[in-house]
Amino acid sequence: MLNSEKIREDFPVFAHHPDLVYLDSAATTLKVRSVIEKEREYMEEYPANISRGLYPLSEKATEEYEKTRDAVAEWIGASREEVIFTKGTTESLNLLSYAFEKNISSENNIVVTAMDHHANFLPWQALATRAGAEFRVVPVSKSGEIDPNALENFIDRNTKIFAFPHISNVLSTIVPVQAIAKKIRELAPEAKIILDAAQAAAHMTLDVKMLDVDFLAFSAHKCFGPTGVGILWGEYALLEALPPFQYGGDMVENARTEGSTFKKPPHRFEAGTPNISGVIAFRAAIEYMQALGMEHIREHEFLLTEYTLAKLREHFPDISILGSDETQKRGSLISFTLPDIHPHDLAEILGQENVCLRAGTHCAHPLHSALGIPATARMSFSIYSSIEDIDRAIKYMREAYEIFSKK
């Protein structure tokens, strides 16, 4: 395992909260010192707008901004022209849903899964409504698996979009992306395959060419970076065929009264002044993860998840844990319910002990409805999480559970 105690020294929040047990990294990760320092560097040393300025401060800001594009491209195995900066996974997916509108008609269907986050469910549902297309939802098993053969009941030659998550933010299921993509291409050769990688980017290696999807989205704030920064990757030929999502400064090639022309990707999709400091700082987060090694991050979180699953079952025999029983099929989060204690009560009680976990439907109402569960509690881990964190969380969980089970 990684030395989580040493890693915690790289995260300033622990200096302010030494007894913090942070088990909500699936919502957002804590911020590494180098990211904070890089954002401050921009604010203090070259706080100018990018792309347009013909003076040293602006040129420096532009250079640093574009270096992050290069870093992202190298990190995910893409070309720099295929990397678009957005506000987050949500905006990336909404961008696609609006850009594809002209390609969808009432004869088509759009398909998602029952375990999609709202950010990869609602934009496609809304597009289907606007276009009069059929909106289809592929069910998943209780362990979060998609039966490739069952896809034949939902995918056909009229399917234009298939959107799904790399890792479920509730079930923790790691979806076999390549196998699913292969099946989709057999059933619907013209369908565009869109992958929500928000829960995967900080936890495992992403290679867009190996995954064989058409578009992929994730957020910097789930990768130790700033909020308000997202990545949308797409095959260049597909991006080039899409119209702009927003209109404004920098994305236009020539604005004329009689008609305007727009820049090529990625700048066509980056209208206005972006989160410059955030994008620049995100490069520091990528470099930090690369220095640790994505394979070491995955191993650390795998062992931590395995330990936590065993301890939860040992201390709470009547616990209901969502997702697969096979740890290798899981990401680094665990959602569960306990009888007699509502997830919100559990989260609030643990929060009073400075133990942070999530409770609710985790922006996945359709999945909770399908499972017949009003809410779940969720622990999610990262590189700064430790065995000691888990032991402490379970200690307070036992105390809370004993109080409520006696009522």
Main traits of this protein?
407 residues; 15% strand; globular; alpha/beta; 2 domains; 15 strands; single chain; Aspartate Aminotransferase, domain 1; Aspartate Aminotransferase, domain 2; four-stranded antiparallel sheet; seven-stranded mixed sheet
Give the uncertain stretches in residue-range form.
Answer: none
Could you tell me the radius of gyration in angstroms? 22 Å
Assigned CATH class of the largest domain:
Alpha Beta
**Which CATH architecture of the largest domain would you pick?**
3-Layer(aba) Sandwich
User: How do the strands of the widest beta sheet line up side by side?
Assistant: 2-8-7-6-5-3-4
Q: What profile does the largest beta sheet have?
A: 7 strands, mixed
User: What name does the CATH topology of the largest domain carry?
Assistant: Aspartate Aminotransferase, domain 2
* SSE order: HHEHHEHEHEEHEHEEHEEHHEEHEEHEH
Number of structural domains: 2
Estimated structural class: alpha/beta
What is the residue-mean pLDDT, rounded to a whole number? 96
Helicity, as a percent range: 25-40%
**How many DSSP E strands?**
15
Q: Secondary-structure blueprint of this entry?
A:
Elements: H1 4-8, H2 13-16, E1 21-22, H3 33-45, H4 56-76, E2 83-86, H5 89-99, E3 109-113, H6 122-131, E4 134-138, E5 159-165, H7 177-187, E6 192-196, H8 208-211, E7 215-219, E8 230-234, H9 236-241, E9 252-254, E10 261-262, H10 276-292, H11 294-315, E11 320-321, E12 333-337, H12 343-351, E13 355-356, E14 358-360, H13 365-371, E15 376-380, H14 387-405
Parallel strand pairs: 1-13, 3-4, 3-5, 5-6, 6-7
Antiparallel strand pairs: 2-8, 7-8, 9-10, 11-12, 12-15, 14-15
